[in-house]
Amino acid sequence: MFEIPDTPSRSGWEEDDVRRSTRKPRSSWDMPTPATTSTGAPSDRSISSIWRSEWNKERLRRDRKRRRERSDTVRSMKEEGDLLPEFKNAFERAEWEREQQKLEREWYDNDQAYDEENNPFAQAKEYVEKKEKQWAQKRERPRLTARQQQIKKDNEMWENNRLARSGVVTMADELDDFFDDESDENRVTLLVQNVVPPFLDGRFVFTKQNKPIVPVKDATSDLAVVATKGSNVVRAWREKEERKKAQEKHWELAGSNLGNIMGVKVKPEENDPGAEDHGASYRESQQFATHMENTEAVSDFALEKSIKEQREYLPVFAVRQKMLNVIRDNSVVIIVGETGSGKTTQLAQYLLEDGYGNAGMIGCTQPRRVAAMSVAKRVSEEMGVELGQECGYAIRFEDCTSENTRLKYMTDGILLRECLGDPDLDQYSAIIMDEAHERYDYGRTFPVEIFHARTPMEDYVDAAVKQAVKVHLGGSEGDILIFMPGQEDIEVTCAMIKNQLEELDEAPPLAVLPIYSQLPSDLQAKIFHKAPGGIRKCIVATNIAETSLTVDGILFVIDPGYCKLKVFNPRIGMDALQVFPISQASANQRAGRAGRTGPGQCFRLYTERQFKEEMLVATVPEIQRTNLANVVLLLKSLGVDDLLKFHFMDALHKTTCSILWTLGALDNTGRLTDLGRKMVEFPLDPTVSKMLIVSEGMGCSDEILTIVSMLSVPAIFFRPKGREEDADAKKEKFQVPESDHLSFLNVYLQWRLHKYSMKWCNDNFIHGKAMKKVREVRAQLKDIMEEQKIELISCGTEWDIIRKCICSAYFHNAARLKGIGEYVSVRTGIPCFLHPTSALFGMGYMPDYVVYHELIMTAKEYMQSVTSVDAVWLAELGPMFYSVKEAGSSRIDKRVQSMRDVRSMEEEMRQV
């Protein structure tokens, strides 16, 4: 700061010791103007100054005495370690704390300036930029030079001095000094450090890969740029549908006063069955087996041949006996075969027919749930048994097996969970790890003709829709399979195909069916059914249709060349689901879908040059690009302490173990802790699992369970075009200024209070389907908590406990306030901003420290799901990263303490 140097005449302007005791430095403008006296005239300064009058001296003595008493009281309370007043009993103390929290909350609730775009996945760039410009205009002030600022400051200080000498602002100045002292005493300075345990400091090598691999060959290529931008057609379609919903909602008369006068009746509301959490079983609607019918043949190959003839036609049948002999002589066998050769469906049946099912079950793992369910259904039909009896499947929260089951299809995670209770897997006589590679493709049963685009496509959704309509109107028989990156792309593609066919005169009928992981089981099963009337089917799917998913009759494949992959971003410290170009192996795998039941055609919406130059040869394995903290926890729980000696097909990156140690799942020597053993049992991210487990000890497990369930869905509120103000006003009722997590909790509590009404969701611009999913996940997690004997405890209205519990899990994602609306990561210093959907965005209150659930990578790093926390909580719950600066401590003391911690950890390592 620029300061004007003292003038030689300043000593003549100084007053007595009372003015010297002030905290702030004083310039010449802060002192009284010296009296202009003649050379021979006597000075009257002693009687002209009110500071030297007798009555004012007495008043100043009383003021100084009161300040000393107040300072001594605060100092004594601080030395005793308790800043609270004395209480007669615990009841008075609790009443005082509740009153303080009530006053604090009332102060927060005074600010009602919340107005923002609430869908973080809507990509409303214009809205965010508009809001930021408005904030920038409010913050703009005329810039002054350092000299002008100092002159302005001196003028203000001189004016305050004039007012003080007149006795006008004596009491106000006294109060300001008191509150300034109080704020200085309560202000906490947070020190950032980085403690690394011995097993992570590089002396002990446990992994050959330090950083995750990004699955992009060239980030500047056309495919990569389009993947980053997304589809313009999808964005335009979303805005159109939102406007349409707003218009329909605006003209609804049922339930309004005008509708009652006109006699418009309210339609019966479709609520969830049961008014309580356990009033209905949410798993019945997700039972895939109940919606599966016996599949009917569609292709000529399936119509002309029986099931036995179809099995014998497969290439794997020619080596059946040779393969069984090799399996009989070896405990571990690797089988490599062509796509469509029959490995998935036939190998397990061969083992069952050879007698392996007599000593136990034959287990076969699949990488995806839909694959496990569909393959189990197909095999049960080939065996001629009912699904769930001799042949069944098991996926997350759904077990379709019985005591008679001899052949069991399941996901990889189910088998790993069973390893926890039975490490030797005694109930199985053979285990088949199907699609363990998911990277290479060597051929197909029938020939497939491949067509590449002549020029690069700018919008993959629009190009796929046009190609599908062209194939359908071409007259050739056969069903169509379209690959899309995500759910929204699939829904828009299905809607656009239907709309374009409706606009054509006498267009042949087409059954457009979506398939993705979050689709209800009854709709997923439709892709395996024969279309009514024998019409053509058009299946729009994610990459779950690439492997182990055979739909009879698919002869045409449309491949845009994109997919969604989960990638660990070391900058933000978490996984992110992003769109990337597929690899050449995935492209060949997709083309192979057209040759499973007959000769087919594959239309690639990218050029041959892009296929060769812009795509990786093989997909980067998930173990090299994601945070496999759950896998490491499982391996540790199974006794694999040395990860370097474990035979990974691909090296595990170092970041995974670092996160687990930070959360307390691993100790300083890399071994699993008691907390880590509990975290293994939850099918959640380790951070969320810790928050759920720790909540029991803090007395808020019931509320944390609800918050975790709310975090499982991408968006709760929607904001239709044309009704933005109405949506904002409704959302504002649920906001808790201190926390987005508490806002989620408030929404669920209000929904439960209204008996899980779907009408209530629509009236408050809340996604009803998302809330149904939240309720389902909550019931599932509650069952796991009961199995782990974690008691559900409610903290009532003591929501500060919830904020501290959230801080215990997300302290590594902490940010501190840097400017108006701008935060920086405490650990890395990366700038991060409040997202417009946050309850803290636009509020007058800006907390000094916050923790966030995740970062959204758009034009800026926006924090999603933010909660304000205290600096003391960060130091208490994350001592490996933060510490509080204590009065009187020096750098030497801090250095000595850190050396003690390091020596203690090294001693633990030597003992191990």
From TrEMBL:
Annotated Helicase ATP-binding domain residues: 324-474
Example GO biological process: mRNA processing
Molecular function in Gene Ontology: 3'-5' RNA helicase activity; ATP binding; hydrolase activity; RNA binding
Keywords, alphabetical: ATP-binding, Helicase, Hydrolase, mRNA processing, mRNA splicing, Nucleotide-binding
Record has NAD as a keyword: no
Biased composition (Basic and acidic residues): 69-81
Region (Disordered) residue spans: 1-81
EC number: 3.6.4.13
CDD domains tied to this protein: SF2_C_RHA
EC top class named in words: hydrolase
Low complexity: compositionally biased ranges: 32-43
Signal sequence interval, chain numbering: none
Pfam families noted in UniProt: DEAD, HA2_C, Helicase_C, OB_NTP_bind, WHD_HA2
SUPFAM superfamilies recorded: P-loop containing nucleoside triphosphate hydrolases
Reaction it catalyzes: ATP + H2O = ADP + phosphate + H(+)
Domain annotation Helicase C-terminal: ranges: 456-639
InterPro entries: DEAD-box_helicase_OB_fold (IPR011709), DEAD/DEAH_box_helicase_dom (IPR011545), DEAH_win-hel_dom (IPR042035), DNA/RNA_helicase_DEAH_CS (IPR002464), HA2_WH (IPR048333), Helicase-assoc_dom (IPR007502), Helicase_ATP-bd (IPR014001), Helicase_C-like (IPR001650)
PANTHER family per record: ATP-DEPENDENT RNA HELICASE, PRE-MRNA-SPLICING FACTOR ATP-DEPENDENT RNA HELICASE PRP16
Family: Belongs to the DEAD box helicase family. DEAH subfamily. PRP16 sub-subfamily.
Official protein name in the record: RNA helicase
Lineage: Eukaryota, Metazoa, Ecdysozoa, Nematoda, Chromadorea
